[in-house]
Structures are given as C-alpha cells and as structure tokens.
Amino acid sequence: MSMKATNRQVDGVSIVDMSGRITLGEGSVVLRDTIRDLIGKGEKKILLNLGDVTYIDSSGIGELVSAFTAVRREGGELKLLKLTKKVHDLLQITKLCTVFDIKDDEAAAIKSFTK
Amino acid sequence: MTNRVSYTLESTLESVNQVEQKASEVAARAGLAEDEQYQVAMAVREAAVNAVLHGNAYDPRKRFMVAYETTSDALVITITDQGKGLDPGSLPDCLAPENLMKGSGRGIFLIRAFMDEVKIRNTNPGTEITLIKHTGRSAAKAKEETQ
Asked: CB atoms < 10 A from the CB of A1, how many?
C-alpha cells in the first residue's frame, strides 16, 4: 500500500493525516514534499497524524527526523500524533522518543502548541 | 531437514519489496510469531535496501542475491551484493547524541535489534550479510538465557 497524506487546519495547526507505509521511495518522498510545502506556506505548527501508518523503515524514520529538523530550523514545531505500537517501538529503540513530542489525543495535541 | 531457496535480483526498489514479502512468507512458514515475522521482514528489507542503494548503487549491471534457508532450529537469510564492500567497524553509533538527529544510518542497527545473530562479511568486491533468527526449541533456549 502506498502512502497518502492529506492536510487540514484546526485552530491554527496544520494536521497531516498520513496512511500507508513510509519507506524508501514513494512514502518518504510524499512526507518530504508535504513538509516542504507546509514550510513554504509559512506553517509553523505541524501535527503529523501517524494513526494509519502501518509501517516505517529506517528511511522513513530518517525522513521524520529531517522533517522535525527542517520545521524547527524555520522556528516552528512538529509533533507526532497517534503512533501505532510498531512505530512507537521503533522510535523507542532508536531513542527518538526522547526527541519527538508524541501525543495520543488530537485536541490535547493542538492545545500543546505554543500560542 | 533443511530447505533452501535463492534468488538473483535487479538493483531496484521493486526487488526490495519482493524480498521483504518473501521474507515475511518464509518467517510465517518457519513458525515464527507475528511480531517476529515483522522483525524478520523488516531486517531483510533493510539489508536489501543496503545492497541496492549503498552496495550496488542502483547500477543496472549489478545484481544482488538472497538465500532463504530454514533449518530445524533457525531461519537463515543471506543477502549478497556486488558493491564496494562495507566495513562494519566504520558504522557510526546511531544512538550517540551527535548522530541521533541524522537522517540516515539506522539500517544495520535495526537489523541487529531484530535478528538473533548478524554476520557481515566483505566478499571483495561486495558485501554478504547473514541474518539468523532462532526458531522452535533453540529460540526458547535463547530466550531463557537472556532472562
């Protein structure tokens, strides 16, 4: 299953609903292009909803890290929402749980962004 | 009893997906639990990506080989490329603070995390990586020893 990303705006936060696989090739490119587009539009509050992401490989993990760094470089914040157990475990063993702000509840995640 | 099947593949991402799918099937047939099937498939995917991307560098003249072997107590998968070779000692620690935010360099780390044994051999030219997952009684014994 290829990756799909759709954007919506809630209370000034850009929420990206992602589904499918974030792997080397198409999935990583979709994520990279989506983040680049949002940064280009001046979006500073980005919430990646990974609830329907079934699989991430090391390339996908690298793309998440690059997205986080790119948004922060522009003075913005990127947070992750609704990780599946497999994705959460991957971020745990790679110690990236300590880097990303990971949320389970969308409303709480939106409120957590700097006003 | 040992079952062995091997394939020679083109250096493409399509081949990587095929190799991953086959690994998942072989792991299921070997009697591994669902989470272990996922681990094996992911480790094989990472090794195949390394072969295609870092080893053969998508060179259409180069192939990579994958052998799946099921023995009485293990699943052994060997992936060989025709690239420049890999020095495992040169791989940076992806958990070190200075590497944590890098966009790459986690493949071999994940392979080691998900498999019971990993052997990397320089085949001059090329790299051979052997991934081993214990099955059946040997897996239970290995788990006992780690507890």
From this structure: 10
Residue B103 belongs to domain spanning: 3-146
| Interface probe with B: pick from A3, A22, A36, A58, most Cβ of B within 10 Å | A58
Using DSSP's 3-state secondary structure scheme, residue A78 falls into strand
Kindly identify which residue of chain A lies nearest to residue B109, measuring between CA atoms.
A94
pLDDT < 50 regions, chain B: none
Looking at the structure of chain B, the number of domains it has is 1
Q: How far, in whole angstroms, is CA B114 from its chain's centroid?
A: 9
Q: Which of B16, B101, B106 sits opposite A58 (nearest CB)?
A: B106
In chain A, alpha helices (H): 26-40, 58-73, 85-93, 106-112
Q: How many CA atoms lie within 13 A of A73 on its CB side?
A: 11
Which one of B45, B105, B113 has the shortest CB-CB distance to A57? B45
Q: Which of B13, B38, B106 sits opposite A61 (nearest CB)?
A: B106
B3/A18 Cα distance (integer angstroms): 40
Please indicate whether, in this complex, the C-beta atoms of B103 and A63 are within 8 angstroms of each other. Answer: yes
Copy the structure tokens of residue B88.
């495992």
Query: Whole-angstrom Cα distance, residue B94 to residue A95?
Result: 9
* Residue B66 near residue B21, CB atoms below 8 Å: no
> Which CATH number fits the domain that encloses residue B104?
3.30.565.10
The ipTM is 0.90
As a whole number of Å, the CA-based R_g of chain A is 13
Report whether pLDDT(A74) > 60: yes
Sorted by sequence, the CB contacts under 8 Å of residue A104 that are 6+ apart come out as A81, A82
Distance (Å, rounded) from C-alpha A42 to C-alpha A30?
19
